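Good day; I would like, with your permission, to put a structural problem before you. What I wish to show you is a protein chain and, alongside it, a tokenised description of its three-dimensional fold. Here, with my thanks, is the record as I have it:
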Amino acid sequence: MKILSFNTNIKLAGSLLIAALTLVSCKKLIEIPANPPSAITQAEQFADSATTMSAVAGVYTYNSQGPGFGYSDANLTLTTGLSSDELSYTGNTDQQQFYSYTLAPVNVEVASLWASPYKGLYQANDVLNGISGNKNLSASFIKQISAEMKVVRALYYFNMVNLFGGVPLVTSTDYNTTAYLPRAAASAIYSQVIADLNYATKNLPASYPSAGRARPNLYTAQTLLAKVNLYQGNWQAAYNEADSVINSGIYVLTNNLNNVFLDGSTEAIWQIPAVQSFFATTEGHLFVPGSGVTPTYLVTPLMLNAFDPGDQRLQDWVGTTVINKQNLYYPFKYKNVLASSTTVEGYMVFRLAEVYLIHAEAAAHLGNLSVALADINRIRKRAGLPNSTTGATSQTAVMAAVMHERQTEMCFEWGSRWFDLKRTGNAGTVLTAEKSGWQPNAALYPIPQGQRQLNSLLTQNPGYN
């Protein structure tokens, strides 16, 4: 995959990005006029609501080659799955370094984990800059789109801070001010994320602004805010935001596990249409092997053994192939290998099951043990399992039950397991027992060497100099 540095991206964006955005569209999001111009000025791009929406459409476009939604390449899922105890790797490329904790600052996948979100951030910031104070746009339109872009920006920075720690905090498109920014403290990144989400929750409506659920609504912002507060240990705030989403009446757990990731899923809170030329989601393309082919990414024995007997998630979300008379297991949440599949999958960013688990964890920390158990039992019932046998008398036991349910429900999604192991302080204990090479510095990925060569103000994370 071609990797561009952050600084290079910004230089290119001024001349190329706006033109590119007019050429992409998002399913059911907006109709792009036929024969769009090959290049237009920023003033023309944001001349009215229709031209502005072409730029907005680009922000949500699922495109593994970019530009578009910055997590279309599956790299976040793959690398964090290898770093945690979910996946092992049968190849011999830079990805093996994530599994063995031998990451080097020149690792091309680390460079991609940095570059792709910053390309996405540029797009979101470009829209925010283009609509701010724009007299050609109505106040209500500016408020709506500003809130959406701030949810997108918050998502990028939330993942970046959990992968790298502090990163440059870029909120404009002015290359002169952004090219040589130092790393902001992790606390400053979280403050920006929370500020963006607070704005979004105050200005987004409960209804989705277009067909489907590709563009955030109020509950999308509240879901991410609940997650951020959970990671920050703000239990009551996490509980309240999750509670609002659960009680909205919009979302319902999908009974059939095979339908959870289909386009139009009833539990989807934020779901990007996955429309590409040759394959649908990149996860499906990379995880699901061809006939007689050894999977590139194998589900680890620990992950397989985490599922309780009779758990339908093991049957429906983990695929099996036989190679040399040996069963090999691979992630199978996204099942479409080809874009021509008769079933249409959407790329799930947030779903109701995760909100129940956020609600449960926050409730357990607050001492609401019966609420926590009720939440996870909803998830277990959908998986074909009986209620948890943990009694509601021990906070420690209920917390363990919640985290176990997070492991099995959220496997292979958005780095959930990797982030959980780190934020709970259990990474060292769990991963040392499973793999060799673990060291505390491995909890953060290195700052890409190419970035540091371009910007001398970027410091390196400990253990990678």
In short: The CA atoms of residues 390 and 398 lie 6 Å apart. Residues 6-258+349-434 form a domain with the Serine Threonine Protein Phosphatase 5, Tetratricopeptide repeat fold (CATH 1.25.40.390).
